[in-house]
Amino acid sequence: MTSQIAPPAPTGTPSTGYRLRWAGLAVILAAEVMDLLDTTIVGVAAPAVRQDLGGSDAQIQWITASYTLAFAVLLITGGRLGDLLGRKRLFVLGAAGFTLASVLCAAAPGAGTLIAARTVQGLFAALLIPQGLGLIKAMFPPKELGAAFGLFGPILGLSSVLGPTLGGYLTGADWFGLGWRAVFLINLPVGLLAVFAAGRILPADRTTRSMPGAGTNTGTGRIDPVGVLLLGVAVLLLVYPLVQGRELGWPLWTFLSMAASVPTAWLFTVQQRGVLRRGGTPLIEPSLFGKRAFVSALATGLVFFAALSGLMLVFTLHLQLGLGWTPLHAGLSMIPLSIGVVVGAVLSGALLAPRYGRRVLHLGMVLAAAGALGLWATVDGADGLTSWQLAPALALAGLGLGLIMAPFFDIALAGVEESETGSASGVLNAQQQLGGSMGVALLGTAFFGWARTDGFGHAAGLTYGLVAALLAAAFVIAFLLPRQARPDGEGH
């Protein structure tokens, strides 16, 4: 079976690649950095947001979760729109909409308005981000794909953990009296630059229907609205009660909702197979779920990104709400984590992953879990803490996270056929966002629940224990992954 996924058609040959490919990669990485910063930067500003706008514990979680949830729900649809309408076009549209939504976030007069604006941000991010992997695969010849993807680890890893530091600085600096609103306005110059540069640098692309020999699938080339609805409902049924349940006292409907997400997801898969049988274009290539390696990558990534997002949120909340640290102090305290991520990503991408493959992921999970347990031992029962006391465990956790981030997506795509790469990339990106949303919901709920009865320090320690447990689960699942990434970007 071949699919409707079509890469852009850049100037150049498969052996030489697109002439401006490295500049194009910089534009794509800028968009990825903007997304990751916006995902992580808000956590450290959340207490200041609540002090300014009011709101409940659940609303603090929703300021983060609404973005990742909207992103996860429409990310696969965004990838399919890029296939049909052109990835460059969707990239520019997504970057422009994301930038405008950031301004709306900065201007929000209340918590509800901010959550709504964050949702709009997530929707445009779902148009922007999934175009990146397809554009990279189209711009670079196979022999350079490893080097291109290798840059993702250190740059994106650093961005994900520098977000809280930058958020703390911007919130604490209170430029022009903006306070927490500056964490959203920082997207304005980056977003405008991305829009301008993308229009001039990224290659023009064509849809599948205009490309001879693009494949034998006779799909209609239309977005599947029923599939979009079913997928969105399945995600909402799971995540909404996780975020809202604790504050409402876990009524029966929350459990029924989470249980209903399973048959809804099954119904989505059945409906997608039916679309394919009728000659339509499914949101997700059903053949992907017949590949053990890809399904294992989804499970591994879901658990890993849940642990990562939950750790970042709980750490910043504990330092500010529990210890009373300023946003700047809390943000600067995460520098050891940032350094660890960069070191781990560079070592993994340049030296370890090409030689040892999956074993690098296992090593990273062990080190990250050890760092989380170290944080538990440091904070639980401590009367007072300093940044220096937290630094060793943070650096160890960061080293482990960096080792994982650099090779994960390359290994996850091993065994995926070239014709399935676009769909697989969209699903992997959606899995990352869904895992992050679930991590915020699960670990945030656990943290606030324990904090009310046992205090913030004990609650943070127990939550770090949950992070270590999630990483242990990811360690076990990762044995099902391919031993190595595909050579030279080809499936095997």
The backbone outline, from C-alpha atoms, is globular
**Low-confidence sequence ranges:** 1-11, 207-220, 488-492
The total domain count is 2
> Secondary-structure element order, as H and E?
HHHHHHHHHHHHHHHHHH
Mean pLDDT: 80
The largest β sheet comes out as: none
CATH topology of the largest domain: Growth Hormone, Chain: A
What is the β-strand count? Answer: 0
Instruction: Please give the share of residues in helix.
Output: over 70%
Number of helices: 18
User: Any idea what the radius of gyration is?
Assistant: 21 Å
CATH superfamily of the largest domain: MFS general substrate transporter like domains
Strand residues, percent: under 5%
**End-to-end separation:** 16 Å
CATH class categorisation of the largest domain: Mainly Alpha
Which structural category fits the helices and strands? mainly alpha
